[in-house]
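Type 1 glutamine amidotransferase
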Amino acid sequence: MPDPLRFLVAESELPEDREKRRRSAGQSSGESYVETLCSLVPDATCDQVKPAEEDSPRQDAAGIARYDAVFLCGSPLHVYERTPEVERQLDFMREVFRSGTPAFGSCAGLQVATVAAGGTVRSNAHGHEAGFARRIAPTEAGRTHPLLAGRPAAYDAPAIHGDEVEQLPEGATLLAGNAVTAIQAAEIRFDGGVFWGVQYHPELSLREIAQALRRQAETLMEDGLARTPDDVEAQARLIEALHREPERRDLAWRLGLDRQVTEARTRQTELRNFIDRLVRPTRRERRGSGA
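Predicted structure tokens:
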């Protein structure tokens, strides 16, 4: 039998944010990512690193190259605030590119890869995109790109973010966007590496989206997406109920969702495509060349 795939999950929550997320969602962003990856590839080996933290061991290109894929989680850090934590994230991502290991990132993961390769990120021009990104449309390039294989001409996806990619780096390919966030999916090639990323969260369950809304209730009210904490709570409860009973058409109707979100397998489309259409072929090429 072939060796199992080896995944490296990079978690960029700082300790305080990590514990806050564990208290509400039951696990950190990295732990959530590992759980989803293990459901997609049960025999995979998943290791975690925390590149933003000062005392975390530095990962270099040679070490990263021992993995078949790298996954970058979401993060409350703002990439345009060039703090030591952010600089360590960017250094890690540059080593990922240099290693030639296929990489995938969601939300802040896309933003980190963008800045590491020379692009820019800003605060959302249209305010928060919270709960779900609506009517995401593939570009002409995205309609034939393997990352979005199986996605229709317009689809929704779990999302919650206050920052967005402003400009992709030179040579990157825009794959999808919507009216709120122009860059929802992209491919970035830089320094010998390939990155596929999305601004939304194919790795998250609906329950985690509900908890994320609760954690950011104050910000959502400031942005005018809710008037009171009760408004946020009502929306979160609907989403949680759909998580428990995804077959309930009445809940999906009230939330304006279809199977692109309600079905876990469809919701995780980009992750499966990345593994099947980039990670596995790259591994075979590396094995064939003796790398």
